[in-house]
Amino acid sequence: MKYSMGIAGFVVLGAAAMAAGEASDMIRVTPEDTGEALVNPSMGWTMHYYSNVPRNYGWDLAPSDTLDDFPGLSVVYLRIPWSYIEQEEGVFSWTVLDTPAQRWIEKGKQVAFRITCSESWMEWATPKWVRDAGAKGLRFKPGAGVQEDGPFWEPDYGDPIFLEKLECFLEAMARRYDGNPSVAFVDIGTYGVWGEAHTHASTQVDYPSAVKKAHIDLHVKHFPNTQLAISDDAAGHDAPVVHHEVTDYALSQGVTLRDDSICVQPPPRSWYHDGMARLFAPRFPVILEHEHYGGSKARGAWGDGSLVLKAVEEYHASYMSIHWWPRVELEENRELIDRINRRLGYRLQLSEAAWPARVALGESFEIVSSWANAGVAPCYPGGFAAYTLKDKQGGIVAVLVDEFHDMGSLETAPPGEAQALPFRSVFVLGREVSGANHTVRYAPNTQPGRYEVYIS
Predict the structure, then answer these.
(1) Distance between CA 232 and CA 95 in Å, rounded?
(2) 3-state secondary structure of 212
């Protein structure tokens, strides 16, 4: 839409990239949510490039293939046994992690890790040299528990030699990845078979809470600048629990919760710990992982997929897994994935914005806007509305940021019930106003002209 040119001493503000209308001397815009998937910090789909077994589920992707066609994919997830990284003590093969990670990072996405110490498909998830150094452990057969001639070995998770070697590994890993903005989260996966904080599919030996807390402490010590996550199965895997000594402790240490067992079993046992997740969700992004899609379908646990969306709602989840061959899951569940994307994490909606059609240089003016969070989770990183003025060549004239209204304050609500909050943002173009008015934002070098307004 066109507006009159600015005259000396004035700026004329138009609207771009949105529907616009004019009432008297105000420009009002009412954008509609397009429903498209958003890739934003602290939310999205996580792609299992390694799912314990390195050949599941990204091994056949071409080096250039980062699944850009999967809507809402924000993180490549690398879950792999410790022995793949440190086959010899002190000699680390970070290439195992860096190669797939960098493919997604170059596309502006993130990476997440889980390092496991016990698997039901390989003998030495914990490197054999740890056992040879004197660490205690037990052999087991999946489903049968401890067996002296069992094919697999699981460490004694509280053994001091095991913990010493593990800490050296975590220290080295943290030097490389802690605080890296490309790392979305790190699982505390060093306790339990598959890193899921239970032993029911391995030795079936339940260790004291103090041992589980020791694994939390090691990660908190070495990853102070990275979001950590612990499996809900630290509190048990087959009964509803809200409070538990270990998960309550994890929460107190800034660790978030993940549930790896959505739709493993048919209803009504599709999950157990949504109540526990609601303790974490107000502060930290909750992570969900549905069962291997093919296995869940085969057992009749998947149904029409609506239970996965229901889990997102009940857990107030920010992340959901792609736990299968990704394009098979996408092809068979596209409508479901689109529905999940409209609720997963946070979804900031601008319902209305208005500003004067003409602004005098040096005089304060208001931009009035209404914002809602249509997702299931808070906007954990926070953020502020930015109004960017551009000239006809696309050059940035001014960036006006309202730092008094944090998007993290927007509350969540059931589907379709998010309430928009009104924001009143005061700015000045052209020069600073005399006096100490700390509620006004200035863009002192703005020149007269006609500019378009972009909102982000």
Answers:
(1) 30
(2) helix
Q: Residue 359's closest CA among 1, 5, 2, 12?
A: 12
How many separate helices (H) and strands (E) can be counted in the chain? 10, 23
Helix (H, G, I), strand (E, B) or coil at 137: strand
Contact 47, 70 (CB under 8 A): yes
- Contact call for residues 11 and 398 (beta carbons, < 8 A): no
Residue 139, class by beta-carbon neighbours within 10 Å (0-12 exposed, 13-18 middle, 19+ buried)? middle
**Cβ atoms 257, 291 nearer than 8 A:** no
Backbone φ/ψ region at 337: left (φ over 0), alpha (ψ -120 to 50), beta: alpha
Q: Which two tokens stand for residue 23?
A: 């009432």
- Of 39, 33, 68, give the one whose Cα is nearest residue 344: 39
* Helix, strand, coil % in the chain, rounded to nearest 5: 25, 30, 45
DSSP assigned state of 233: G
pTM: 0.92
The tokens 């900031």 sit on which residue? Answer: 348
Q: pLDDT tens, 194-211?
A: 999 999 999 999 999 999
| CA nearest to 86, candidates 119, 112, 125 | 125
- For residues 380 and 440, the answer to whether their CB atoms sit within 8 Å is no
Alpha carbons 354 and 351: distance in angstroms, whole number: 11
Q: How do 256-262 and 286-290 pair as beta strands?
A: parallel
CA distance 165 to 129: 10
Convert the pLDDT of each residue in 374-418 to its tens digit: 999 999 999 999 999 999 999 999 999 999 999 999 999 999 999
The string of DSSP letters for 304-340 reads: TSHHHHHHHHHHTEEEEEE-S-HHHHHHHSHHHHHHH
- CB neighbours (10 Å) of residue 36? 10
Amino acid 212 reads K
For residue 204, the Cα-to-chain-centroid distance in whole angstroms is 31
For 126, 258, 274, 377, 397, the CA distances from 287, given in Å and listed in that order, are 25, 4, 11, 11, 40
The vertex-438 CA angle with 436 and 441, nearest 5°, equals 110
Q: Taking Cα atoms as reference points, which of 44, 75, 110, 46 lies closest to residue 343?
A: 44
Residue 322 near residue 63 (C-beta atoms within 8 A): no
Cβ atoms of 354 and 26 within 8 Å: the answer is yes
Task: Say if CB 274 and CB 315 are below 8 A apart.
Answer: yes
